[in-house]
Design a protein that fits this description.
The protein is α/β, with parallel strands linked by helices. The chain has a six-stranded mixed β-sheet with strand order 6-7-8-3-9-10, sandwiched between helices. A four-stranded antiparallel β-sheet has the order 2-1-4-5, covered by helices on one side. It is 38% helix and 26% strand. Helix 4 packs antiparallel against helix 6 (144-157). The chain has a domain at 1-84 and 162-168 and 193-242: P-loop containing nucleotide triphosphate hydrolases (Rossmann fold). Bound molecules: adenosine-5'-diphosphate and magnesium ion.
Protein backbone atom coordinates (compact mmCIF):
# COMPACT_ATOMS: atom_id res chain seq x y z
CA UNK A 1 0.00 0.00 0.00
CA UNK A 2 2.91 2.32 0.55
CA UNK A 3 3.60 4.85 -2.20
CA UNK A 4 7.03 6.13 -1.38
CA UNK A 5 7.89 9.22 -3.33
CA UNK A 6 10.31 10.98 -1.02
CA UNK A 7 8.92 14.44 -1.67
CA UNK A 8 9.28 17.28 0.78
CA UNK A 9 6.97 20.25 1.19
CA UNK A 10 8.80 23.51 1.71
CA UNK A 11 7.09 26.72 2.76
CA UNK A 12 9.36 29.72 2.67
CA UNK A 13 8.54 33.17 4.06
CA UNK A 14 4.84 32.83 3.32
CA UNK A 15 2.71 35.95 3.83
CA UNK A 16 -1.01 36.25 3.12
CA UNK A 17 -3.21 39.31 3.53
CA UNK A 18 -6.96 39.66 3.30
CA UNK A 19 -7.77 43.16 2.05
CA UNK A 20 -4.57 44.60 3.44
CA UNK A 21 -4.79 42.85 6.82
CA UNK A 22 -1.98 40.36 7.39
CA UNK A 23 -3.20 36.85 8.28
CA UNK A 24 0.14 35.13 7.77
CA UNK A 25 3.45 36.92 8.06
CA UNK A 26 6.66 35.28 6.90
CA UNK A 27 5.98 31.69 7.93
CA UNK A 28 8.45 28.97 6.93
CA UNK A 29 8.28 25.24 7.47
CA UNK A 30 9.39 21.95 6.00
CA UNK A 31 7.47 18.72 5.99
CA UNK A 32 9.79 15.86 5.05
CA UNK A 33 8.34 12.79 3.39
CA UNK A 34 6.57 10.38 5.75
CA UNK A 35 6.27 12.77 8.67
CA UNK A 36 3.63 14.58 10.70
CA UNK A 37 3.89 18.28 11.45
CA UNK A 38 1.48 19.80 13.97
CA UNK A 39 0.51 23.44 13.55
CA UNK A 40 -0.88 24.86 16.78
CA UNK A 41 -2.25 28.27 17.62
CA UNK A 42 -5.30 30.13 18.90
CA UNK A 43 -8.28 31.21 16.82
CA UNK A 44 -7.21 33.71 14.19
CA UNK A 45 -3.53 32.66 14.30
CA UNK A 46 -3.49 31.95 10.55
CA UNK A 47 -3.61 28.14 10.65
CA UNK A 48 -6.39 27.75 8.09
CA UNK A 49 -4.82 30.44 5.94
CA UNK A 50 -1.58 28.44 5.89
CA UNK A 51 -3.47 25.35 4.70
CA UNK A 52 -5.42 27.35 2.09
CA UNK A 53 -2.25 28.93 0.75
CA UNK A 54 -0.52 25.54 0.38
CA UNK A 55 -3.64 24.13 -1.36
CA UNK A 56 -3.67 27.05 -3.80
CA UNK A 57 -6.97 28.49 -2.55
CA UNK A 58 -5.50 31.83 -1.55
CA UNK A 59 -2.66 33.64 -3.24
CA UNK A 60 0.23 34.66 -1.00
CA UNK A 61 1.42 38.26 -0.92
CA UNK A 62 4.98 37.01 -0.53
CA UNK A 63 6.89 33.78 -0.14
CA UNK A 64 6.79 30.41 -1.87
CA UNK A 65 5.48 26.89 -1.45
CA UNK A 66 7.21 24.02 -3.20
CA UNK A 67 6.75 20.27 -3.22
CA UNK A 68 9.52 17.97 -4.35
CA UNK A 69 11.22 20.99 -5.90
CA UNK A 70 8.11 21.96 -7.91
CA UNK A 71 6.87 25.45 -7.23
CA UNK A 72 3.21 25.33 -6.18
CA UNK A 73 2.81 29.08 -5.82
CA UNK A 74 0.55 30.22 -8.66
CA UNK A 75 -0.70 26.72 -9.52
CA UNK A 76 -4.45 25.98 -9.52
CA UNK A 77 -5.96 24.03 -6.60
CA UNK A 78 -6.78 21.15 -9.03
CA UNK A 79 -3.18 20.91 -10.22
CA UNK A 80 -2.00 20.80 -6.61
CA UNK A 81 -4.41 17.93 -5.84
CA UNK A 82 -3.04 16.09 -8.88
CA UNK A 83 0.45 16.37 -7.43
CA UNK A 84 -0.78 14.42 -4.41
CA UNK A 85 -1.66 17.13 -1.91
CA UNK A 86 -5.14 16.88 -0.48
CA UNK A 87 -6.86 19.15 2.01
CA UNK A 88 -9.53 18.32 4.54
CA UNK A 89 -11.16 21.64 5.43
CA UNK A 90 -12.45 22.49 8.88
CA UNK A 91 -15.71 20.59 9.34
CA UNK A 92 -14.73 18.02 6.71
CA UNK A 93 -16.26 19.59 3.61
CA UNK A 94 -18.37 16.55 2.84
CA UNK A 95 -21.68 16.77 0.97
CA UNK A 96 -24.35 15.84 3.49
CA UNK A 97 -27.10 15.09 0.96
CA UNK A 98 -24.99 12.45 -0.81
CA UNK A 99 -24.33 8.96 0.52
CA UNK A 100 -21.01 7.89 1.99
CA UNK A 101 -20.29 5.97 -1.21
CA UNK A 102 -21.17 8.93 -3.45
CA UNK A 103 -18.98 11.29 -1.46
CA UNK A 104 -16.04 8.93 -1.90
CA UNK A 105 -16.67 8.35 -5.62
CA UNK A 106 -16.89 12.07 -6.24
CA UNK A 107 -13.43 12.57 -4.79
CA UNK A 108 -12.06 10.06 -7.30
CA UNK A 109 -13.94 11.38 -10.32
CA UNK A 110 -11.10 13.12 -12.10
CA UNK A 111 -8.90 9.99 -12.12
CA UNK A 112 -11.10 8.13 -14.63
CA UNK A 113 -9.62 4.78 -13.69
CA UNK A 114 -12.38 2.33 -12.71
CA UNK A 115 -10.09 -0.42 -11.43
CA UNK A 116 -8.33 2.08 -9.22
CA UNK A 117 -11.69 3.45 -8.04
CA UNK A 118 -12.70 0.04 -6.68
CA UNK A 119 -9.32 -0.44 -5.05
CA UNK A 120 -9.39 3.00 -3.45
CA UNK A 121 -12.96 2.43 -2.17
CA UNK A 122 -11.99 -0.93 -0.68
CA UNK A 123 -8.99 0.62 1.04
CA UNK A 124 -11.08 3.37 2.64
CA UNK A 125 -13.72 0.85 3.79
CA UNK A 126 -11.02 -1.38 5.30
CA UNK A 127 -9.48 1.59 7.06
CA UNK A 128 -12.81 2.85 8.45
CA UNK A 129 -15.18 -0.09 9.09
CA UNK A 130 -17.98 2.22 10.39
CA UNK A 131 -18.11 3.78 6.92
CA UNK A 132 -18.48 0.38 5.25
CA UNK A 133 -21.53 -0.31 7.43
CA UNK A 134 -23.09 3.03 6.42
CA UNK A 135 -21.94 3.05 2.84
CA UNK A 136 -25.36 3.68 1.28
CA UNK A 137 -26.69 6.09 3.89
CA UNK A 138 -26.64 9.85 3.43
CA UNK A 139 -23.64 11.53 5.00
CA UNK A 140 -25.91 13.64 7.21
CA UNK A 141 -26.82 10.49 9.15
CA UNK A 142 -23.22 10.02 10.30
CA UNK A 143 -21.89 10.89 13.75
CA UNK A 144 -19.25 13.61 14.06
CA UNK A 145 -16.45 11.06 14.22
CA UNK A 146 -17.74 9.13 11.21
CA UNK A 147 -18.03 12.36 9.25
CA UNK A 148 -14.40 13.10 9.98
CA UNK A 149 -13.49 9.56 8.83
CA UNK A 150 -15.38 10.23 5.60
CA UNK A 151 -13.54 13.52 5.15
CA UNK A 152 -10.16 11.80 5.53
CA UNK A 153 -11.39 8.95 3.32
CA UNK A 154 -12.22 11.45 0.58
CA UNK A 155 -8.73 12.89 0.72
CA UNK A 156 -7.33 9.35 0.38
CA UNK A 157 -9.55 8.67 -2.67
CA UNK A 158 -7.61 11.28 -4.58
CA UNK A 159 -4.46 9.24 -3.88
CA UNK A 160 -2.92 11.89 -1.69
CA UNK A 161 0.65 11.66 -0.43
CA UNK A 162 0.38 14.75 1.72
CA UNK A 163 -2.73 15.45 3.78
CA UNK A 164 -3.54 18.94 5.03
CA UNK A 165 -5.95 18.44 7.94
CA UNK A 166 -7.72 21.48 9.41
CA UNK A 167 -8.74 20.78 13.04
CA UNK A 168 -9.97 17.20 12.51
CA UNK A 169 -10.75 16.81 16.23
CA UNK A 170 -12.93 19.91 16.53
CA UNK A 171 -16.13 19.17 18.45
CA UNK A 172 -15.46 15.45 18.84
CA UNK A 173 -15.63 13.44 22.07
CA UNK A 174 -12.21 12.54 23.58
CA UNK A 175 -12.56 8.86 22.67
CA UNK A 176 -13.21 9.75 19.03
CA UNK A 177 -10.33 12.26 19.04
CA UNK A 178 -7.96 9.42 20.09
CA UNK A 179 -9.33 7.24 17.31
CA UNK A 180 -8.81 9.93 14.68
CA UNK A 181 -5.29 10.67 15.93
CA UNK A 182 -4.42 6.96 15.95
CA UNK A 183 -5.64 6.65 12.38
CA UNK A 184 -3.56 9.62 11.24
CA UNK A 185 -0.54 8.08 12.92
CA UNK A 186 -1.20 4.72 11.22
CA UNK A 187 -1.62 6.33 7.82
CA UNK A 188 1.82 7.83 8.19
CA UNK A 189 3.29 4.52 9.34
CA UNK A 190 1.57 2.11 6.96
CA UNK A 191 1.08 4.17 3.84
CA UNK A 192 4.00 6.52 4.07
CA UNK A 193 1.81 9.62 4.01
CA UNK A 194 2.90 13.01 5.25
CA UNK A 195 0.53 15.14 7.27
CA UNK A 196 0.18 18.78 8.17
CA UNK A 197 -2.08 18.62 11.20
CA UNK A 198 -3.70 21.87 12.30
CA UNK A 199 -5.03 21.55 15.83
CA UNK A 200 -6.03 23.48 18.92
CA UNK A 201 -5.90 20.21 20.83
CA UNK A 202 -2.15 20.50 21.47
CA UNK A 203 -1.68 17.43 23.63
CA UNK A 204 -3.30 15.03 21.15
CA UNK A 205 -1.52 16.53 18.16
CA UNK A 206 1.92 16.65 19.78
CA UNK A 207 1.56 13.01 20.82
CA UNK A 208 1.59 11.85 17.19
CA UNK A 209 3.57 14.62 15.48
CA UNK A 210 7.27 14.68 14.62
CA UNK A 211 7.65 18.42 14.29
CA UNK A 212 5.53 21.26 15.64
CA UNK A 213 4.91 24.89 14.84
CA UNK A 214 3.16 27.33 17.16
CA UNK A 215 1.56 30.29 15.39
CA UNK A 216 0.14 33.47 16.84
CA UNK A 217 -1.15 36.47 14.88
CA UNK A 218 0.27 35.01 11.67
CA UNK A 219 3.80 34.62 13.01
CA UNK A 220 5.83 31.64 14.15
CA UNK A 221 6.25 31.67 17.93
CA UNK A 222 7.99 28.30 18.21
CA UNK A 223 9.24 25.66 15.80
CA UNK A 224 10.74 22.47 17.16
CA UNK A 225 10.49 18.72 17.61
CA UNK A 226 6.97 17.88 18.79
CA UNK A 227 8.41 15.90 21.71
CA UNK A 228 10.18 19.03 22.97
CA UNK A 229 7.16 21.32 22.64
CA UNK A 230 5.07 18.71 24.44
CA UNK A 231 7.17 19.44 27.55
CA UNK A 232 6.79 23.22 27.25
CA UNK A 233 3.23 23.32 28.51
CA UNK A 234 3.55 26.91 29.84
CA UNK A 235 4.38 28.04 26.31
CA UNK A 236 1.43 26.48 24.53
CA UNK A 237 -0.90 27.19 27.44
CA UNK A 238 0.03 30.86 27.16
CA UNK A 239 -0.95 30.95 23.50
CA UNK A 240 -3.79 28.46 23.45
CA UNK A 241 -5.37 29.78 26.64
CA UNK A 242 -5.96 26.55 28.53
N1 LIG B 1 -11.73 35.28 4.04
C1 LIG B 1 -11.22 36.14 4.93
N2 LIG B 1 -11.37 37.47 4.79
C2 LIG B 1 -10.84 38.33 5.68
N3 LIG B 1 -10.14 37.97 6.76
C3 LIG B 1 -9.97 36.66 6.95
C4 LIG B 1 -10.49 35.66 6.07
N4 LIG B 1 -10.15 34.44 6.53
C5 LIG B 1 -9.44 34.66 7.66
N5 LIG B 1 -9.33 35.97 7.92
C6 LIG B 1 -8.58 36.58 9.04
O1 LIG B 1 -7.25 36.12 8.95
C7 LIG B 1 -6.74 35.78 10.23
C8 LIG B 1 -6.31 34.32 10.26
O2 LIG B 1 -7.47 33.50 10.10
P1 LIG B 1 -7.40 31.93 10.01
O3 LIG B 1 -6.34 31.55 9.05
O4 LIG B 1 -8.77 31.44 9.73
O5 LIG B 1 -6.93 31.55 11.48
P2 LIG B 1 -7.09 30.17 12.29
O6 LIG B 1 -7.41 29.09 11.33
O7 LIG B 1 -5.79 30.01 12.98
O8 LIG B 1 -8.20 30.40 13.26
C9 LIG B 1 -7.84 36.13 11.22
O9 LIG B 1 -7.59 37.41 11.72
C10 LIG B 1 -9.09 36.10 10.38
O10 LIG B 1 -10.06 36.98 10.90
MG1 LIG C 1 -8.96 27.75 11.25
Amino acid sequence: MSRKKGRMLEVDGLSVSYGGVAALDGVSLRIPDNSITAVLGPNGAGKSTLIRAIAGLVRPRAGTVSYGRRLLTGMSPEAIVRLGISMVPEGGGIIRELTVDENLRLAHLWRRDRADLRKALDEVMALFPPLAARRHLPANSLSGGERQMLAVGRALMSRAELLLLDEPSLGLAPRIVSLIMRTIHELRGQRGLSVLLVEQNARSALAIADEALLLSSGRTVASRRAGELAHEEELWHAYLGY
